[in-house]
Structure formats: C-alpha cells, structure tokens
Write a structure and sequence with these properties.
Strand content: 15-25%
Number of strands: 13
Largest sheet: 7 strands, mixed
CATH architecture of the largest domain: 4-Layer Sandwich
Shape: globular
Bound molecules: zinc ion
CATH topology of the largest domain: Metallo-beta-lactamase, Chain A
Number of domains: 2
CATH superfamily of the largest domain: Ribonuclease Z/Hydroxyacylglutathione hydrolase-like
Number of helices: 9
Helix content: 25-40%
Radius of gyration: 20 Å
Order of helices and strands: EEEEHEHEHHHEEEEHEHHHEE
Structural class: alpha/beta
Strand order of the largest sheet: 1-2-3-4-5-6-7
Distance between the termini: 46 Å
Length: 325
C-alpha cells in the first residue's frame, strides 16, 4: 500500500492467477471511495481490511465503490460490503452482474453455435462454456449507472470515460487538471492480450468487435492529456504513448502472420489460433481465441481477408480483391 497522490492510495490485493495480484484504489474525496473491489476471497478481504485500517479508516467508512468493469477480479469483494454502500458502474454491467443467469444461457447458446463454425475441437468446449454452477463473482447489484462524461459528486475533478475493448463494460476515470487516469485494465505494463470475447448483447445479434473498440479507446486515450495511469494490475504507467504504440505494433505483427498463413492456404479460426498462440492456446484457450477473433475482425474490417461461411466450418481466405498493408 502506498499513497500515490494526495488522498489516493493504492492497495494491492492477492489474486490467484498468473498476475498474482490486483490493484484497488482508495480515494479520500468528499466521501471515502473505493475503485474496484478485487477478487471474492476471504484472504483478499482480510488484506483489504488490514490495509484500510492502517490508513486510519474502517471498511465501513467506504461509502461508494466504482467498478471499472465487470470481471471477477474487479467486483469480487462487493458482497462483503454492507447494503447501503453505493456501487457505480457502466449500465452494460446490468446483464453481467444483475442478470447473470440469463446472460450465461445467452453466452452458451452463442458458443454452442459458433464452436463448430470456428472449427474448435470438442476438447476445448469446456474451457469456453460457462458452467451452470458458475455464478457471478458477486451478487451485489450495481446501484448507480455511469455514462460518458459523467462527473461524480464525491470525486470532484474526475470524469467518466467509456473505454470499451478489454470488455464492453469498461470505464476509466480521468482528471484533466493533473492528467491522471484511473485506467482499470485498459492498459497494463507488459501485457499484450487485452480483449475477452463476449456474446452479442441481449437483444442484439451481433457480437461486439472488442479489438476494434479497444483500438478506438486507445487512440482516444492517446489524444488526451494524460501524464499517469493507475492500472488495475501492475505498476503505474508513465510512458503511455510508448505502451499504446507497442500494443499496435504487436497487433500489426499478428495481422501480418495471419496474412502469411492465409497466403499458404485457407485456415479455420481455430487453426489460426493454434498457429498465432503456440504455447498459450493449450493452457489459456479462451484468451488465445479471443485475441485471434479480434485480429480476424481487424483484418476483415480492413478488407484484407474474407470469411467463407457457406459450410458448417467457416474458412478464412485472403480477400481475392487484394488490399495491401
Ligand atoms: Zn483485471
């Protein structure tokens, strides 16, 4: 735990994953506010209590929790807080948190339909399907929805930015006066796999193209005056433009690799995934597949490739009308 800025404290909580930890931030504004809520574990809760106590507060002093997005490592401790704590998040969290069972069914229907089309062997199905028993990380509801440009009365100076891409529910908090961005998982040092596949929103037929959204969010951030990002994982980010450019370079490399592979022969989405992410797809299939689909979305958008959907298994081809990098 350390004080980063006047009144903003970084609290690092345990998170059993390759990342090992997740950052939450305590802000002493008009009211005590927590940004993000770690993972749902008693160990994480004890650590949060301990660190908040050593700052001279109690967890019950926290009046508001703002979540940057719905992922389990950012909402997990919501259930530990009392019912009168307000929880702020983007309205898209509605289905991910408040209506999860419905979304889970919707997601599985989408996966079942696409698993064949993507050419994915049955063995990987269980890594994609959400199990009946698997609940949302928290049952506490979002009480207040956030939208673009909103200013929160208890956090003077900060403005909500909608920054979809890592997932559809993602927001950041931006303080223009000193160029500070509380960035959630938009950018993390040394991480170049940033999007997670999502089903179409309930009521829509189209799957969100999250890597396209992600790139728009990155360009937006690049054009703002930002001096420092407090991320959801890892150290503060100072070299913001550099990290954004690296993200684009990494994508460019993956796009070129797909183009080379397709020059040799048409591929299914699964085949591209296994060749793009050798060593990763075997252990983190959902992540590798999400990024592959993102790269394919980009190449399709740029008209470099086409997807033939006439057969049960879809096939990616180079666009017969050539487009050049
Ligand atoms: Zn995270």
């Amino acid at each position: 735990m350390n004080e980063l800025f006047n009144g903003i404290h970084k609290i690092v909580l345990p998170f059993q994953s390759p990342l090992n930890h997740v950052n939450v931030y305590l802000i002493e504004g008009e009211e005590l506010t927590l940004i993000d809520a770690g993972v749902n574990s008693s160990q994480a809760w004890s650590e949060l209590e301990f660190q908040i106590n050593s700052l001279g507060y109690k967890v019950t002093d926290i009046k508001n929790i703002v979540i940057t997005h719905h992922h389990p490592d950012h909402i997990g401790l919501l259930d530990y807080f009392s019912h009168d704590v307000k929880v702020f998040g983007h309205s898209y969290n509605e289905s991910w948190i408040n209506d999860y069972k419905n979304l889970q069914m919707h997601f599985n229907k989408f996966i079942n339909h696409h698993i064949k089309a993507y050419g994915i062997p049955d063995g990987f199905k269980k890594t994609l399907i959400k199990k009946e028993t698997e609940g949302v990380a928290s049952t506490k509801k979002i009480t207040n929805f956030l939208t673009e440009g909103q200013v929160l009365p208890f956090l003077p100076g900060f403005k909500v930015l909608e920054t979809p891409g890592h997932c559809s529910t993602h927001i950041c908090l931006y303080r223009k006066t000193d160029g500070l961005l509380i960035g959630g998982d938009l950018l993390i040092n040394n991480i170049f796999l940033n999007t997670f596949m999502e089903p179409p929103m309930i009521g829509s037929n189209e799957r969100p193209k999250l890597l396209l959204e992600y790139n728009k969010s990155l360009l937006r951030i690049k054009n703002l005056d930002i001096n420092l990002i407090y991320p959801g994982h890892g150290e503060e980010i100072k070299e913001i433009d550099l990290l954004i450019d690296l993200q684009f370079k990494k994508q460019q490399k993956r796009k070129k690799r797909v183009m080379r592979l397709l020059r040799e022969k048409p591929h299914t989405i699964y085949e591209l995934c296994t060749k793009l992410f050798v060593g990763l797809y075997e252990i983190q299939f959902a992540l590798a597949l999400s990024e592959t689909i993102g790269i394919i979305d980009l190449l399709k958008e740029e008209k470099h490739i086409v997807i033939n959907k006439t057969d049960e298994v879809w096939v990616c081809n180079l666009n017969p009308v050539p487009a050049y990098f």
